[in-house]
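Input (structure):
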């Protein structure tokens, strides 16, 4: 069974390279199954780290609980890509409210308790050096232009969210408040979060 292909056309984008840090991919099939997962970089890019090892893709056994190869809770990778992300929509969040912001925003976006815990436990302690953080969300349509996720059995629902996070001493940019896309967890569900630090 093939995967739906997303458009690969790109708009004008910055030629600089950014590192997408610690994306976690969670897989929740309806029944135990073997899956082949590939990452494609239509604008160029490469994987620089992965667990388990990404060798022309991941070939894994996944349980409905999300357990992968009876060992992992998610697929981990880091990559370098062109900076073709959006910088018009976002929020300015103070350091002291990052934890509550991410908890509420991730939940509203559609992530579950375990996925939210994984994110906040790792990222909130690492965002402590500046009083303000400018956060630009990249939803599935934004990410697909840069990193496509192809799965041998297409999921019923897929949720992808990267945060581009820029530290700031006092700069308050004019931003449009993002509209969080509606997501319903049902059937074979795949979720992914990651961060790009600026």
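Output (sequence):
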């Amino acid at each position: 069974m093939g995967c739906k292909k997303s458009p690969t056309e790109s708009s004008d984008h910055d030629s600089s390279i950014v590192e997408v840090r610690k994306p976690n991919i969670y897989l929740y099939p309806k029944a135990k199954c073997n899956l082949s997962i590939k990452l494609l970089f239509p604008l160029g890019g490469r994987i620089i780290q992965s667990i388990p090892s990404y060798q022309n893709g991941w070939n894994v056994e996944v349980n409905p609980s999300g357990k992968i190869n009876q060992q992992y809770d998610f697929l981990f990778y880091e990559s370098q890509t062109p900076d073709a992300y959006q910088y018009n929509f976002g929020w300015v969040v103070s350091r002291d409210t990052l934890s509550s912001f991410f908890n509420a925003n991730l939940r509203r976006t559609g992530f579950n308790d375990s996925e939210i815990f994984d994110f906040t436990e790792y990222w909130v302690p690492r965002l402590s050096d500046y009083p303000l953080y400018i956060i630009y969300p990249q939803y599935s349509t934004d990410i697909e232009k840069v990193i496509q996720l192809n799965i041998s059995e297409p999921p019923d629902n897929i949720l992808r969210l990267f945060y581009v996070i820029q530290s700031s001493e006092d700069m308050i940019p004019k931003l449009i408040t993002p509209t969080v896309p509606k997501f319903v967890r049902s059937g074979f569900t795949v979720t992914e979060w990651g961060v790009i630090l600026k």
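Notes: Residues 17-197 form one domain. Helices lie at 98-109, 113-123, 140-144.
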